Amino acid sequence: MDREKLERDLAALPLYQYAFLDTAEIPFSENVRHICETECPMYNTTWACPPAVGTVAECKARCLRWPRALLLVTVAEVEDAADMEQTLPTRQAHEDITRQAADLVETASGHGVYVLSTESCAICAHCAWPDAPCRHPDRMYPCVESHGILVTALAERCGIDFLYSSNVVLWFSLIFYSDQAETAAGLPETAQRKE
Ligand code: SF4
Fold first, then answer.
1. Spacing, Cα 167 to ligand 1 middle (Å)
2. Residue nearest to atom 4 of ligand 1 (CA)
3. Which one of 53, 93, 112, 171 has the minimum C-beta count within 10 Å?
4. What pLDDT, in 10s, does the model give residues 65-95?
5. Measured between alpha carbons, how far is 102 from 177 in angstroms, rounded to an integer?
6. Distance between alpha carbon 172 and the CA centroid of its chain, in Å?
7. Does any domain span residue 191?
């Protein structure tokens, strides 16, 4: 994979910071899943969230099939970052950037990618879960936390600079990929085709 070219292409995107990492560095925790179950209103409402994404062990195994990942961070400014009515509308720009970055990584690696992004999927007005299959499995990105990933711990491990401000929102995505042909041979061909 031509990482220098990929980094030149990534530089054209409005990213705050990014980091390349080995997927073995990613911290998974059942505690994150517990928060999904007990505190998130999106739990059990979409294909992008638990329980549809599988157990944490299944999610971890799915992620670790890819040896490498790119952690992406974008930043948005709002008046009050604690106000979800202000922060959520800034999410779409991050999703668009994630999609562009995923295309760049997929082109650079020559193989598929597996993408995790923010919050729950909002592509359809009403998710097909649980009555019918996901309508857009190739475009649907589960959120990072849905897989039990401790995103702040990962970001710290990767040297991401946190902006401690009441008017700043940081959004995170993970793009899993393989830069090894022999490993990639056993991976799914397209982004979100999981098995
Ligand atoms: S693409 Fe539609 S059906 Fe699939 S997870 Fe998103 S909202 Fe649900």
1. 30
2. 134
3. 93
4. 999 999 999 999 888 888 888 888 888 899 9
5. 9
6. 7
7. no
Distance CA 124, CA 34 (A): 26
CA 90–ligand 1 middle distance (angstroms)? 20
- Are 142 and 53 spatial neighbours (Cβ–Cβ below 8 Å)? yes
Q: For residue 11, give its domain range.
A: 3-184
Q: How far is CA 133 from CA 48, 115, 175, in A?
A: 12, 19, 23
**Angle, in degrees to the nearest 10, between helices 30-39 and 56-64:** 130
pLDDT (tens digit per residue) in 24-41: 999 999 999 999 999 998
CA of 134 to the centre of ligand 1 (A): 5
Domain presence at residue 63:
yes
* H or E segment and range at residue 92: helix 91-109
Number of domains in the chain: 1
Residue 192 lies in a domain: no
CB-facing half-sphere around the CA of 14: CA atoms within 13 A: 9
Return the structure tokens found at 166: 């009441």
DSSP string, 68-85: EEEEEEEEEE-S-TT-HH
